[in-house]
Structure formats: C-alpha cells, structure tokens
Amino acid sequence: MALIVQKYGGTSVGSLDRIRNVAARLKSTRDQGNQVVAVVSAMSGVTDGLLKMANELSENPSERELDVLVSTGEQQSIALVAMALQDIGVAGVSVTGRQAGITTIGSHTRGRIEDIDPRYMNELLAADKTLVVAGFQGITQQGAIHTLGRGGSDLTAIAIAAAIKADVCQILTDVDGVYTCDPRIVKNARKLPEISYDEMLEMASSGSKVMQSRSVEFAKKYSVIFEVRSSLNNNPGTLVLEEHPAMENVVIRGISIERSQARVTVKGIPDEPGMSGKILGVLGDAEINLDMIISNIASDGYARHSFTMHSNDLGKAQAALKPLLSELGPNAKVETEGGIAKLSAVGIGMRSHSGVAATMFKALGNAGINIGMISTSEIKIAVTVDERFIEDAARAVHDAFALDKAPIWFLHDKSSWEKCFSLDGMKTFHRTRVALP
Amino acid sequence: MALIVQKYGGTSVGSLDRIRNVAARLKSTRDQGNQVVAVVSAMSGVTDGLLKMANELSENPSERELDVLVSTGEQQSIALVAMALQDIGVAGVSVTGRQAGITTIGSHTRGRIEDIDPRYMNELLAADKTLVVAGFQGITQQGAIHTLGRGGSDLTAIAIAAAIKADVCQILTDVDGVYTCDPRIVKNARKLPEISYDEMLEMASSGSKVMQSRSVEFAKKYSVIFEVRSSLNNNPGTLVLEEHPAMENVVIRGISIERSQARVTVKGIPDEPGMSGKILGVLGDAEINLDMIISNIASDGYARHSFTMHSNDLGKAQAALKPLLSELGPNAKVETEGGIAKLSAVGIGMRSHSGVAATMFKALGNAGINIGMISTSEIKIAVTVDERFIEDAARAVHDAFALDKAPIWFLHDKSSWEKCFSLDGMKTFHRTRVALP
Predict the structure, then answer these.
(1) Which of A58, A80, A86 is nearest residue B83 as measured by Cβ atoms?
(2) 3-state DSSP of B72-136
(3) Pair B216, B298 in one domain
(4) 3-state DSSP assignment of residue A96
(5) Chain B CB within 8 Å of residue A82 CB
(6) What is the distance between the alpha carbons of residues A23 and A85, in angstroms, rounded to a whole number?
(7) How do residues A39-96 score in pLDDT, each as one tens digit?
(8) Cβ of A65 and B53 within 8 Å?
(9) Among A87, B377, B390, B411, which residue's Cβ finds the most Cβ atoms within 10 Å?
C-alpha cells in the first residue's frame, strides 16, 4: 500500500462533472490499495470572478483582504470534492490550509510555507479517510490567512507529501508530462520518463513552464519524488526526482526555448573595479530581471557587459542606464538588440561528457543559424539566436542529440522504482526499461 | 464615543453597490464619533448557489462539508466590505469567525456559540480599526468549521456585542422595527420604540418572525441592548432591552398572529394518572411541535386534551395517536379541526393590570368572532379563532387596546437612554418622549 498525494488544478475541478471525475479517480487509486490525499485548487473561473469583484470595489484592493477573499475558492472545492467522494462511498474529508497545519511567512498574496504540522492529517489517515486539502493557502503564526501566489497548489501538494511522508506526489495537470522539447515545435519530441530536480529547475528557468521553480526546489530540498501527469488519462507522466548515476548516461535531457528576449550591451567601460556593480545596481533598482550576463574586455581595452532580459523591459533598462553613462566615462555607450530568443540544452550528463557544446554549435551551424551570446552552467548550455529561427534551432539540436530516441540505462534502485511503478498506470512504462547487469 | 455593533443581512450586501452603501453607512457612523464593528451575512444568493451545488453532488451531503462550503459566503462578504471601506478611507479589517474567537459546540449546520475570546477584536479596536466580522460561523475546540443555523448572523452580532462590551447592537434588516401588529394587516399599527426581551420572545414564538428566539434569549442572558432597524433608511428602529418599571404602564405591547394552525382533541380519556404523559409521549416521538396544550374534565367525567399545531403536522398527529386509542379505553376518540389561527396579545403590563382578558374577549365578541381555545402566560393571552377572521380579530384587539396611540411614560434611566439616543438617527425619537416628574 502506498500513500499518494494527488494535486488537481482548477480545470480538473472546473465543473460538478469534473469534480465527480476527480472523485472517481481518487476512488480508483484507493481501490488499488493505496491511501490518497488530494490537494485541489479553486474551480476554474472562481478566483477570477472574486478578483473581478475586488477590482470593481477598489482600484488597489488590500492584499490581506484579497487573501481572505480568494482563499474561499479552494475552501469551496475541498467541500465539494469531499461530498462527491462520500456520494460514491469513499470517506472523504475536507481539510483547509489551517487544518492541514500549514503555517506561512512572507507577504500576503505570496506567502511562503514555513512549516507543516501534519498531526490532524495523520489522525485522519490513521482513520483511513481520504483527505481533500485546500491548495494555495495557509495561515501565519498570528492567524492571518495567506495565499501562496502562482503555482501555490503545486507547492502545497509537494510540501504535504514531505510532511506526511508520502511515497509519491502526483501533479495532475493539462500536460501529460515533461517533454524533451515543446511538442508543438518539435514533432518527435518524447515524453521523459524521469528528470532530475536540477534539470527540471533549469528547464523551468529556461522557459518550460510546467511548474514554478519554487515547487521543484521545495521537492528537491525535502526529497519528494513527484510525477507530472495528465488528469485526463491514465498514462504515466514524468517522474521528477534526485539524480541517480544512470541518469548521467543521457547527455542532454531536454531543450527549452524562451522567446521575446532582448540584449543590452554597455561598451566602452573603463576596466576598473566597481563598474559592473554600478551597472547591475541601476538595473536591479529598476526591477529588471536579467537572464544571461556576459562581460569581457574588448580589443579596444575597454570592458563591455551584455545582458539579456524580456523585451518588455528593454525601454526601462535604457532609461535606467542613460544617467549612468556620463559616470562611466566619455566612451561609454549603450547598444540594444531586440527580436532574439534563447535556446537551452539541459542535462546532468554534461558533467561527465565532453564535446556537448561542439555538437550543439555544429548542429546550429549546419542549419545556417548564427549564434549570438553563449552562457553555460554545469548542466546547461544556452545560446541566443535570431527569434525567427528559434524553432529551426530547437529541431536541429533535438536531432543532433537524438532526443526522440529513448536511452537505455540502469535501474538505479530497484525497490524504490518498483514502489513508484506499482502506482496506477506506471506498469507499462516499467516494462519498456531494460535492466543492464 | 460609543462602540456599536451593526449587523447587515444578505440583502444589505447583496451586490457590489449595496456593499458600497454598507461601507458608506459604517463610515457615517464612525464620522459621528463612534467605533463600529460590522457583522455581515453572505451576499444574498451565494449561500443558495452553494447549497444547490452540494445537492447536485449528493442527495444527502455531509453536514460537516456543508459547513466548510457555506461558511465561504460570509468570508467573501467580509473581505469585500473591508475593501469597500478602505476604498473610502476607512481602515476596515475583515475578521473570520475563527479570528473573532468564536468557539462553538453542538452539531454541524446548527452550532451554538459557547464562548468568544475577543482579544484579537479588542486589539484591532485599540488600533481604531473598523472590524467586519463574518456572521453565522465559528469553530469548535477541535478546529472544525461550524455554521450557526438560521438567524446565525443575528446571534453572532449579539454575542460579539456582549464580548466586546458594545454600547448597543443594531440589527439592520429589511423591516424597520417591531410593530404593535403586522402593518400589512393593521394599517394603523405603530412601530414600537422599545420592547422588553420577554415580550420580544413571546412575539417571536407567536408568529412575529423578526428574529429567532435564541438570539433574543442570548441578548437577555448577557443584557445586550439591541435595536432592530432598517438598513434602507436612517429611521430609529425598536430597542429591545431588559424591562424597566415604566414599561409596565403599557398593558399590551403588541399583537402577533399565527395562521395555518390545527387543533387535535383526544376525548373520552379515563381520569387516571399517566394518561397525559402517554398522549404527549407519542406526539413527541412523532416530532410534532405542540403549541397550546389544554386539558380538562368534561361533563361526562372523562378527561379531554386539546393541542394546537401547524396544520402540516395534522396527519402525522392522527397517525401517531391512532394506535394509542385502544390503550386509552373504549370511549377514547380523536377529533380534529383545521383552518384555525392563533392571536396573541403580549405585554408585561398584564402582570400589574387586571381586566386584560375581559377587554380582549369583549372586543372579539363585539366583532362577532368566536373564540376557540384560550391559553395564557404571565405576559400573554392567546386565543384561537377561525382562520378566515384572524385579520378582523387582530384589528379589533389592536383598537380595543388603542395600540395605535403612543403611550406616555417615564424615562427609566436617563443616562443609558441618552447613550442610545445619541446614536445616529435616534435623536428625533428621543424628543417624542415625555419625561414625567
């Protein structure tokens, strides 16, 4: 018997019929001998309806009151799902964020989970209840209601899985897993059976928005194995877990792209200490999120710094840098370039394989695509290209690393795999793997 | 400066415009130098909408989950009212039942307030905030969400007024006070400036459904002076308070009627101990609410018992009594009569005035109305009449006691009156009173 946390988003509970489907799914997971804790979002549309009322009442509604208002959406869902469970003979019990013992810190509308006291949930589990927990909410030590901001229900599910020591946490969503690349762009993109936390984080920060980074970070911190899978079918999804040795056999796990990027280059900077700090300081004060940051000494003996950012921030960046130019000296100059996109190849196998960058650049060169900036991390190589060619670039790199073909690898830990694969729908996937001696 | 609790029902917060009106009203009460705590219901329609979903999901939805679901309605209202306050520059703060420290006992969907810990509310008041508290809800010692059942928001308001030692509690509703009789029936019915708790309770139990009895009982127990007034205008309403000596100068405070009554008479009962207990026992087991209960020895030497009840219960009562008849002996027989109504005249002045029943019966006789059963308490005389004549009966008794004319009486406690009258809108009313030496 496994203890499974299943998270259902707003679309999955978006109507009474869908709530009945969720209840049936939870029942089927139970019928297979598991205990289940569901974490649910508000019915889709409910949160927006509440926010609309708030914005009609006030141009700038108080965030404390927004939390009080919006958190009712999840409270309604949990009651309705619990009722639907009871109606099919399952002992469903709703659990609010407060009842789940979720204490938060930080600001209203973007609280952070500080601690979970799982005693009440554990009592209910000991009584063999099926819990339906409100995602996206918690309370502060002082008893104020907090919501957790975007992706908050995923975070709730993963944090609860850690607190009640669940065997796995399933994030049921409208995509059916994490792909080697966006299948709308690369037709032969393949759903990944597994991906490491670090790879998932790099994919997320490079544009693959399956989940918010902080949920993945939380899972990594507390070693929560979670699976991204579809709420519409029973196909196995993608397991996200700590890397294991066999994973390094795969050089590149996946490719992510990010469009609408812009580059700003400040050139003619005297090669003196403190210059970079000044430049990054004014951009930070202007609340511009920088992505790639590259600096170098040019042939003219002056330093130059280049940054990428979302193209929406380009104007703000130019305005922020303008007053600084005179301070940087007579030769300082700002150049900008819009219409670029970023392609990132991610894989922990890079650490133990050489020639990865060469393979990637050669593939792009063969496709006639010019590379702009290059930035690397231990498990990522990112390049900028002309935005018009980003899809071609993705296909070329996907092909070069043969990402459409499933790799053959070791089972790293048979017992823990079997625990995961014994969950509903995972059996087929298990059989496709080959255990090498 | 007075501390005032104002309760607004679902209609008063039934749209964003009405929420703005409530906020404006709260602001105006503050602008007059008072501190205000609002207690609000769910926006009208919201609770019904939630119940509809629950009933679609389950034929018999769990009462625990109904509480979780339905309590979101008030939580939404408090956030929205607080936002509307902030939008007009008033420091509104929403307070859930839990945050208000309301602990409850009893069953789900009909919890009873056990205790209020007002510390958080007092902190907010000390910081000069305008509180917006969710009516109708509390939590158990174990942390489960309870709703308080019908009239629960009134109860919340009165209980909070007691807990924070408010000067007065205003119940703002769609009627503008308690009348000497239903003004739709008696055109010259007069709004009462004040009524004692006991009179209000007798009126409530006799068909005048301005408020649930338990709210009035709670107010009496904790000496909370409350005022029933309209949320649509600023007219003074009716103060409900502990009786004071001057109140006894008024013989009859008001008249209430109750339609759709039925009478059941069991006759031919041997005059032996235990017979009444048997009969009341089977009716109680059948969950029939009896109103008037009269028993007597008839001229034939047998006992007879008569009861009134709502006519909906008549069939159930007959079925319950049938198996009992043989036990009661060969002469036992059940007679029933539908189509009757009850008229009750209520007033604490009855205790010190004689001839009240005579005046009432004479008035009914002069109007050609036959009296059925008669029942009295220390402060009430109730009679049944043919339902077709109940409105004529009400008018006849109203006239006989000259209830359309305001009595002249003493001010019983000048300082406490002035406190109440200094609240907005009460000044006019004050001037109409005459202080006798």
Answers:
(1) A58
(2) HHHHHHHHHHHHHHHHCCCCEEEECCCCCCEEEEEECCEEEEEEECCHHHHHHHHCCCEEEEECC
(3) no
(4) coil
(5) yes
(6) 5
(7) 999 999 999 999 999 999 999 999 999 999 999 999 999 999 999 999 999 999 999 9
(8) no
(9) B390
